[in-house]
Every structure is written in structure tokens, then in C-alpha cells.
Amino acid sequence: MIFNWFKIFIYHLKQNKLFSFLNVMGLSIGIAGVIFAILYWNNENAYDQWNPEKENVYQVLNKIGSTGDTWSSSTIPFGKTCKETIPEIEQISFFYSWYSDGLVKYKGQKIFDKKITVADNGFFDIFLFPIVKGAKTNILKENNSVAISEETAKQIFKSEDPIGQTLNYNNKDYIVKSVYKVIRPSSVEPNFVFGGVVRESDVDQWGNFSYGLLIKAKKGTDVNTLLKKMQNVNYVNRTLKDAKANGQTPEQYVKENGEISVILDRLDEARLHSTKSSQGKNFPEGKGNLQLLYIMVGLSILILTLSLVNYINLATASAIKRAKEVGVRKIVGATKKQITLQFIFETAIIVTLAILFALAIVELSLPYYNNFLQKSLTMNGSEFYLQLIFIFGLVILLAGIFPAIYISNFETLKVLKGNFSRSKSGIWIRNSMLIFQFGIAAFFIIGALIVNSQVNYMMNKDLGFSGNQVIRIPFNYQDYAKKNEKYHVTKQEILKMSGVIDASTFAGSFGNSSKSSSGLTYNGIFVQPRNIEMDFGFLDMMKIKIVKGRDLSPQYASDTVSNWLINETMVKKLGLKNPINTIISSGWGNEKGNLKFKIVGVVKDFNITGLQDEVPPMVFINLKTLKWNNFDNIYVKVSPDNLTETLAKLKSYWEKNINQDFPFSYEFVNKDFAKTYQEQVKQKNLFFILNLVVIIIAVFGLFALASFSMERRLKEIAIRKTLGAETDALLKELSKQYVGFCLMGFVIGIIPAYILLQKWLEDFAFRVNISVAPFSVALISLLVLTLIIVLTKAYQVTRIDILKYLKYE
Hints:
Elements (H helix, E strand, L loop, with lengths): L1 H14 L1 H29 L11 E8 L5 E2 L4 H10 L3 E7 L4 E7 L2 E10 L4 H4 L4 E4 L10 E5 H8 L8 E4 L2 E9 L11 E3 L17 E6 L5 H23 L4 H8 L2 E7 H7 L16 H29 L4 H9 L4 H38 L8 H27 L3 H6 L9 H34 L9 E5 L8 H13 L4 E5 L3 E2 L3 E2 L1 E2 L2 E3 L2 E3 L2 E5 L3 H4 L4 E4 L13 E5 H7 L8 E8 L2 E11 L14 E5 L10 E6 L4 H15 L9 E2 H6 L3 H34 L2 H9 L4 H35 L11 H26 L3 H5 L3
Parallel strand pairs: 5-10, 7-9, 20-25, 22-24
Antiparallel strand pairs: 1-2, 1-11, 1-12, 3-11, 4-5, 4-8, 6-9, 7-10, 8-9, 13-26, 13-27, 14-26, 15-16, 17-20, 18-19, 21-24, 22-25, 23-24
């Protein structure tokens, strides 16, 4: 019986080559989209799942004030006090929650690595990477200890035993204690883990938020209870003590200085569901894009649904040609169950072919997909194959059951009398599905237009600064004490180069904000501004405007001692009507208390972070004002003429005078800032690609359904032509229902499109307003596409040979 079903399937496949091809390709495109989404979903949800302590490990974040920033960093005394006083905490670890670029030396080898972190002895008790060589415990107990990954060990030491060898990093010698195997994907995948993260000067500093903090709670610990106890540590050791020292009640102190709220992010949820910190990255491997993941999964399901609807439409429409076959089979004794199973069997063959084509599409497209997501996804693993089997079963169930039941219910007498081809049975279902297809197509077109509009707005918005021809060059000077002095010497030297227009610096980067923030209170109002330590002339070079007062200048000695600038947002936060000459106590203190600064100018707001965020309050001081500084880059404005020659001269100077061990690198500021909306660019490109896919599938369905519908009306058309109907009238008659379906589908599609895209735009502080334009363009596009397809087929049908269809009437 199975063999007989297979022969019948092959026969009909040959008889309907085009529609069979459209069926298979439509399904394969839909299935390929789901496979792509599954690969991305599996990878993002696999982070840290290998870690047996994943449900007990938490990263500690701190939010300063009710409206302040959230920082993925903590203080040393806070972490140590929590460990000593809270019995639920089994282990803590301080580490750098970012990767450092650095040069590691070994016997003449120079290894420049971008995945270096520094941690304390608790690191490997929390990230349980398998130890393949060396010490299993107390790996980083000594400050001069280092553990390296298995891949790095092979790269540096080849066949030599790495244990006990000496590596030099930042001009300090470290002894290799262990070699570990990195399990991926993980929130931390370092090649080097150096010991000695805690600086002695920070041991008692409750205000120095410089370290990532991980805690491992005992199994069964209630996280809310743990959180309250950690919050109490801050209250007792900071709020109460500082309030008493200032002669205030705790309530008064909190009102004026804000309160530090502790946030706990569980390790196994940190990748996709962690609280966003002001640094953007809570862990070195970054934060997953949950929004993009949901978009990709949701859109892939929509496309698969579109493919299934397409298949069901074509299957039920083509069933008319097989009506007599079903009638004859019923006469000779075939049951409904047998006919149903036969058509499900045929669907299974088509789905099998579709999955094979889908796998081929994915395999060929995977390199581009990985480049798009900046990942290394592969089609393997037991989980993926189980999901593939599930997709196979689900598609057969959804695509096969309805057409099979529909066909098996054909009435035998009506079929064999020859009246079935004129029956309206099932037409309303096919029309409803076609309207649904139009709705999905409208949703995608509107979505693509609005996302494109937002991305274009972000790319072209006036950011309040000009990064044209300004490059950022990392200033990797090792002697911290002389860094400021070396910077000024470097600035003077490079300004002498032809092609260099200007040079300056500030402690931060465009797109990533500044490197420090200090809370301050004025007239009872607490604000947590970003600190912008900058050189003279920086604002002018970046074309950042002063709206009131003046810029900081070397002409005024006080500009390096007690004067600063604030931005417009800071003025609004503090409620200052006449900010110039206002004196404010800063968050920086010395032995005499907090330093006081006079406002000499107001800076026009500019976007230092991405357009997802509001412009933060900022204060601007000169590099020489404080004893310490945080700048890591020099900003150089270069002439577009002979740019290659200018860059070569800068490279030569850097390698000879700044740090011979670090390779010279640079980034244009505009390109640097563009990284803040690269995820949105991905979404724009994703919508564009999926739009093409949706339109192709919709075209398949519309063309096939129009063909079947019009071929059923060939005799009617022949009669109309005999009675003198004009071609124009026939074209109008044949196409008007499809225009109606298009309009109904569009109305259905615009409602979810508006709601979901309005929600998507809410993530941006700076965004476009949804206008009528994308909806109008989508409607016109759908109508034009529909008319081109339908009128082309209708015109072909009107050219039929009348005698062929009327000679037996």
C-alpha cells in the first residue's frame, strides 16, 4: 500500500511540477528561518549552563540613588563585610568585569591578547573551569599567580610544561599555577587570569566602586533574604556612619546623598535577563540582545506560519484536480482513514524534501549568518537534532491534517457526476488564508519601513558634537605617575606633524560615556553626574557648544583648581535659573572635606552614550584639577588630505615614544559611536532580508492560488468572450476580488504592526514618531504587487482558445 501511495505521489508530482516546486520551496524557506532562530536561541540560552553553581552564583550591581546609574562594580570593604557577616554567602570573588588588552612576555615571545582579566583566589571556585594541569585549589592565592587557558598554553609553551614558568605582564612577573579548559559559551572566557586584583589602597575605601563582585550563595538560600541582608550592610556601614559624621539623621542623609541599592543578577540568567548597567557590559563576554532574539524567533514563526498557510492553500486548491481519484477510491472500498493517511504520507514526503532543502539553505548561509550575529554557530548537538525532529512532526501535523481531512470528505456522488469543480467547498477557507497572508506581508513591510526610518534617524541625528576626521588612539603609557606629563609632551609633538589639525583628550569615549561618576547634593537635590575630565580645547575640537558663560581656558589659573562646566541636563536637574558663578560642593573629597567648584559655563547637551539613553547630567573639569586621571585615549583631528601619510607618521611616533610593545591602533570617532546602534542596524537588515522572503512566499501563494482559481473559470471566461466581453472588463472581473483580499489583509496587519513597533521604539530616548507614510507605502506596495501578479495571470487566461472549451457544449 505504501509503495502504491508513493507511485501516486510521484505521478502527481510530475503532473504539477511548478506547484510542487512552489510547495517545497515555500516550506523550506519557512523551516530554514526557524532553524536559524533555533541556532541563535540555543546559543544565547546556553551561556553558563555548564556551570554546576549557576543557580547559586550572583553578580552584585549597585544603583546609586533612585534615578542614578547602575554599576556592575562594587567596593572591597562591602564585599568582605558581606562575606564575614552574612552566613548565606559561601564564597565571594573580586574580578575585573571586563577584558583588558595587554602584552604578555615569555622568553622573548610577545603575546598581545585581548582576553585578559584579573581576579582574586575565589574566581575558580565560582567559574568551575576544569583544571587540566597544575594546582586544583588556591590557584590565585598569591598575587603573582596566573592561570592560563589550554589553548593559550599550547600557543605559548608548545610541548613544554607551563606549570612554574614565569610570564611578564605590565612589567610584573607572574608564576603559572594552573592550566584550565574554557567551557563555552560562558559569561567569562579569559585566556589569562592574573592574581592580585585587590589594591591595598582600596581595602578600606567604601566609595571606590572599581571591582566586579561575584557571590556564591549556599544551596537553598532565599535570594530576597540575602538581598535584604546585603542592603543592610550598606545601610549600617555607609548610611548610618556617614549620617552621624555629618550630624544628620539617616533620612536627611539619604535625601541629600541618595541611597545605594544592591541588585543581584543570577549567573544563569545574566546573559539575557540581567539589569543593564551604565557600562553596558556586566560581564566580559557582553550582554545578550534579548530584543533581537525575540524578534528573530517571532518573525521566523510568522514566516513558517506563512509557509504553512501557503502550503494548505495550494494543497486544498489542487485537491480539485484529484477529486475523481478520491471518488473512485471510495467506490472501490477505500475508507476515510486510508485516504487521510495517504495524503498525510504525501505531506510527509514534501516536508522531508523541504527540510533537506532548508538544511542546505542554512548550511550555505551560515557563514553570513554568523558574520551578521558575530558568532560561530554550527548545526550540531543532540538538542538541535531533537528540535529538528520536533519541527518535522509539527509541520506534518499542521500542514497535512487539514488538507487530508478536507480531501477525504469529498462527496463521492457529486465528484463522479462532475459537478465538484464548480463547488464552492473550501473556497472561503482558502480566501481567509490568503487574507491572512496579506496581513503578514503588510506587517513585515510596515515593520521594515519603521525600523529603517529609526536607524536612518540615528545615523543622521545631530549628536551635539562633530567627530568628522577625528580619530581615537589608545594611549598605552605604562608609567601612571607620569602619564599626564607624557600626554602633554605627546600632544605638542604630534601637533607639529603636517596633516594633524588638533589634538586633545577626555576620560571616556563617545558611545561609552565617561569613566567615572560622583554624586553631589545642591539645595537638597541629589544628582549623580558623569565626570568629564578633559584637556583645554577639547570641546572646541569636537565642536561642542557653550550656551552660557565660557569654556575652560589656560588663561585662567582657577580653571585648573576650582572652576568647572556643567551641561544643560545638569542645570535642569539642579533647578538652576542663573547657573553661572554658582558654587557647588563636588563628590570629590580630601582631608578638608568635599571640594567646591564654581560654574563658569554651561555646555549644550550632546550624546555621549547611545541614542537609547537620555543625555546624562555631566560636569566638566580640566585634567590638572585632580591628582588622578582616567583618560586612556588621545583624540586627534586629521586632515583628509594625505591621510595615509599622516597615519603612518602617527604610527611611527607611537611605536617609538609611547609603548613599543603595543600595536598602534585607531578608530574614527563617528565609527566608534556607530557601534551604539549596530544592533538596530542588524534589525534593519534582518527586516529587509525577511521582507524579501515574505514577499517571495506571498508571491508563490498568490500566483498559485490565482492560477487555480482562474483555471476553474476557464469555461465561464470562454462564454463571456463569446457573448462579447472585452478583455479589460474580464481583467477587472478576475482581479477585483484579490484587491479586496489585499485591503482586508492590510487592515488586519496594521494593528499588530503599530502596537509592536510602538513598543520597540519605546526603548529609544531619541526616536522617530510613527507617521502615516510607512502604512501608505505598504498598502501601495501590496496593491501594486497583487495587481502585477493577478493581472499577468488574468491576461494569460483571457487569451484562451474559446472553441477548446465550448465545442462539447
